[in-house]
């Protein structure tokens, strides 16, 4: 350690070059040390500097962090419902059956995930979320059940809501009416523009294209749940309802690579706004990553909320063939199996023992259930017509059987060399409770925790799919080298060209004659 | 208290469960004694298909030279990562498949630079990834570190934390690099190598917990999170990701 020498000149230079406040603090410090000579000066050196600074009036008292006023009022209102409306809501709340309390379910879900899977959500956020969920369910009577779905881009908190049957029906009607209105408006707009174009002589605008594939009504398929999103989980007013998805939305959203956060306004040519893209990503994540151990869920007839399960149904469902399922129009869903036996930890870590519990979204149609574009395809006339036009008859795209094991999911070999799976299963602890976490490799951030008969699923991530084939624009080819010997020659005149062509023709005729002679000889 | 134990002051995806934290703390004590390290820090986790790598970073006397890394699958047995190979550093970005979790696995892939198939061992790739992430992505709040009078990079004991308005500014987060020998008087204080001047601009800064915590996340290496409690000397960063650079970043932001 070298000792640093300080000369008088250095001191004078410092007084001129340094900030005058620094000089005065230093002078105060040194003078204090020389006059008071504290014995433990080295240990309390920082304190001395702070107190010297204090004399300058530099230090301000530490103020407590500022909570935005809205949140403070909200939290107070939950505990002090002096407003008439809230008082009534809270009173009616007490009569509701306990199993639909979002308060307890949210806290249980998140605390379980935090304890075993190590999901990092601050306690305050859990509290605010539960309070908001409770308030939302009080205000909107059509919500039957609320669940915290997850967080996209670490900014938007998403809730999953299951509506009552009436809720779904009225929502489906609203969506239908809105879609028809939008279509009518687009058509009217197009006709106006067409008239304008005809009058001014400009090129006609393209007619609007409306896809034939119908939207899956609220409560079924891709739209089986309704989602709410907010960036301020503590404010119930800030939750916006995400719209239902048309099949086109999903097909377009599959092509978008951007982080949902960075999309501004209409996303380029696709014309999808942020909300639709968010909803589409949520749908894709749900379809690909909702899994559970085998045997925990069974495909049974879909029940309305509040309807009780018929115990006789249990035995019938196991024997049905796949074909019968397709013909059978009854909607089915995966429901908890009451006779589920807790599997051993060894089985839980095996990928063959985990299954998907939601249906896949079809590649071609953006729906869960195949919609037949040609319902009269049995007639022969139509078949012939189609063949003449050169179109292939589109057979129904078969999605994987419901409750198919996750071991069948294959990642591209480019992405996962040697172990082409889409899932990572991990035991939560070496010695402790038999809990297993299933992590998706394709949608990073999607986590499912299975602990002693309970299953919890959450998504906290950026809302984008993993890819390994990164698009790189093709490189410009190398600059071609000029030939070593550049031979210059004169441009042929017209007569020389004609003479040359005539010569070529003669040569060709000779060759053909030679070939004919050879053929005859053979 | 090390920063990894105060994880739930901001929103994260997967982090450490309580059992994992206990195991890490106990392992850190033994590792520090065995290797005579001054500081041992929890660096993060690189997830693989079959297994995950939990990583610790150890410093002896210098923050930049002779940094040692240790990895473990189960937080009980730790292995020291080998020194980084220049070959691995060169090939790191061409290898775009996920880590498998088996250190002896060998990746075979096409290298566009060499125009032929190359082989890369997973352990080497892991070291290269850790070193690259550390060198490119270490950030500190401005004035958190100083260059001391004996030319060593050291923590600033007088750092009381960034105030709220400064913590919302991307200019207050400086890349942590070796600036000794710089002609500027206070290089780490006045550094212009902030996250704002990075290309591509893939840092997302937001406040959580009613503005108490400033969180900076990287979109170039998804999973890298830096947090700083406003008006307090608490800050830290970890990496919880799959160890691959996000090459599609230019299309995504």
UniProtKB/TrEMBL annotation, chain A:
Alphabetical GO biological process terms: axoneme assembly; cilium movement involved in cell motility
InterPro entries noted in UniProt: ARM-type_fold, Radial_spoke
Primary location group: cytoplasm
Region (Disordered) residue spans: 188-209, 298-336, 369-408, 488-522
Skewed-composition ranges (Basic and acidic residues): 188-201, 390-400
Keywords: Cell projection, Cilium, Cytoplasm, Cytoskeleton
Name of the protein in question: Radial spokehead-like protein
Record organism: Cloeon dipterum
Automatic annotation (TrEMBL), chain B:
Any one GO CC term of the record: radial spoke
GO BP: axoneme assembly; cilium movement involved in cell motility; motile cilium assembly
Keyword Cytoplasm on entry: yes
Keywords of this entry: Cell projection, Cilium, Cilium biogenesis/degradation, Cytoplasm, Cytoskeleton, Flagellum
Top-rank lineage group of the source organism: Eukaryota
Similarity remark: Belongs to the flagellar radial spoke RSP9 family.
Keyword set includes Cytoplasm: yes
Locations listed in the record: Cell projection, Kinocilium; Cytoplasm, Cytoskeleton, Flagellum axoneme
Lineage of producing organism: Eukaryota, Metazoa, Ecdysozoa, Arthropoda, Hexapoda
Protein name (Swiss-Prot/TrEMBL): Radial spoke head protein 9 homolog
UniProt xrefs under InterPro entries: Radial_spoke (IPR006802), RSP9 (IPR055316)
């Amino acid at each position: 350690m070298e000792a640093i020498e300080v000369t008088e000149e250095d001191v004078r230079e410092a007084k001129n070059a340094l900030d005058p406040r620094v000089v005065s603090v230093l002078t105060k410090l040194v003078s204090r040390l020389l006059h008071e000579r504290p014995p433990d000066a080295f240990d309390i050196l920082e304190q001395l500097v702070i107190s010297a600074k204090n004399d300058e009036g530099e230090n301000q008292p530490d103020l407590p962090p500022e909570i935005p006023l809205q949140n403070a009022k909200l939290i107070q209102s939950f505990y002090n419902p002096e407003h008439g409306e809230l008082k009534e809501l809270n009173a009616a709340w007490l009569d509701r059956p306990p199993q639909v309390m979002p308060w307890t379910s949210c806290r249980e879900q998140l605390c379980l995930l935090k304890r075993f899977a190590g999901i990092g959500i601050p306690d305050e956020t859990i509290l605010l979320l539960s309070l908001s969920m409770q308030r939302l369910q009080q205000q909107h009577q059509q919500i039957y059940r609320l669940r915290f779905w997850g967080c996209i881009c670490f900014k938007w908190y998403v809730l999953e809501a299951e509506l009552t049957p009436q809720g779904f029906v009225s929502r489906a009607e609203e969506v239908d009416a809105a879609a028809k209105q939008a279509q009518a408006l687009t058509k009217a707009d197009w006709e106006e523009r067409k008239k304008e174009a005809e009058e001014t002589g400009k090129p006609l605008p393209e007619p609007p294209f409306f896809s034939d594939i119908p939207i899956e009504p609220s409560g079924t398929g891709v739209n089986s749940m309704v989602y709410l999103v907010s960036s301020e989980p503590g404010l119930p007013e800030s939750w916006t309802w995400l719209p239902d998805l048309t099949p086109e939305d999903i097909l377009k959203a599959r092509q978008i690579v951007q982080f949902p956060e960075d999309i501004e306004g209409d996303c380029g040519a696709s014309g999808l706004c942020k909300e639709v893209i968010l909803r589409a990503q949520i749908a894709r994540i749900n379809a690909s990553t909702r899994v559970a151990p085998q045997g925990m869920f069974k495909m049974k007839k879909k029940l309305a909320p509040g309807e009780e399960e018929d115990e006789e149904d249990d035995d019938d469902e196991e024997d049905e063939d796949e074909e019968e399922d397709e013909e059978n129009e009854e909607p089915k869903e995966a429901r908890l199996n009451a006779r589920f036996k807790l599997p051993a930890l060894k089985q839980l870590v095996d990928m063959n023992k985990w299954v998907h519990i939601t249906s896949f979204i079809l590649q071609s149609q953006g729906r869960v259930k195949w919609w037949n574009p040609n319902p009269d395809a049995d007639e022969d006339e139509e078949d012939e017509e189609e063949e003449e036009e050169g179109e292939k008859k589109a057979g129904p795209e078969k999605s994987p059987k419901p409750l198919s094991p996750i071991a069948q999911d294959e990642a591209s070999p480019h992405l996962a060399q040697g172990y082409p799976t889409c899932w990572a299963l991990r035991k939560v602890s070496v010695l402790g409770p038999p809990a297993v976490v299933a992590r998706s490799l394709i949608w990073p951030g999607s986590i499912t925790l299975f602990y002693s008969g309970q299953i919890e699923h959450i998504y906290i991530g950026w809302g984008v799919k993993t890819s390994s084939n990164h698009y790189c624009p093709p490189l410009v080819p190398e600059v071609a080298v000029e030939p070593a010997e550049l031979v210059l020659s004169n441009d042929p005149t017209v007569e020389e060209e004609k003479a040359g062509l005539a010569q070529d023709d003669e040569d060709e005729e000779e060759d053909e004659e030679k070939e004919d002679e050879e053929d005859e000889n053979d | 208290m090390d920063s990894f134990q105060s994880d739930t002051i901001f929103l994260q995806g997967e982090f450490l469960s309580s059992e994992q934290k206990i195991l890490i703390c106990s392992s850190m004590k033994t590792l520090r004694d065995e290797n005579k390290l001054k500081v041992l820090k929890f660096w993060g986790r690189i997830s693989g298909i079959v297994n995950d790598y939990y990583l610790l970073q150890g410093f002896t006397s210098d923050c930049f030279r002779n940094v040692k890394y240790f990895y473990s699958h189960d937080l009980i047995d730790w292995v020291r990562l080998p020194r980084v190979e220049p070959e691995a550093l060169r090939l790191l970005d061409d290898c775009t498949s996920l880590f498998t979790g088996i250190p002896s696995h060998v990746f075979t892939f096409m290298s566009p630079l060499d125009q032929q198939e190359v082989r890369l061992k997973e352990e080497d790739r892991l070291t290269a990834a850790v070193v690259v992430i550390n060198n490119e992505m270490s950030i500190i709040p401005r004035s958190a570190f100083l260059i001391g009078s004996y030319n060593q990079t050291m923590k600033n004991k007088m750092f009381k934390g960034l105030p709220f308005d400064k913590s919302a500014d991307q200019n207050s987060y400086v890349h942590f690099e070796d600036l000794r020998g710089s002609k500027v008087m206070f290089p780490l204080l006045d550094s212009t190598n902030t996250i704002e001047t990075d290309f591509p601009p893939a840092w997302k800064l937001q406040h959580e917990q009613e503005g108490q915590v400033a969180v900076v996340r990287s979109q170039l290496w998804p999973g890298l999170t830096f947090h700083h409690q406003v008006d307090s000397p608490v800050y830290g960063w970890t990496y919880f990701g799959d160890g691959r650079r996000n090459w599609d970043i230019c299309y995504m932001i």
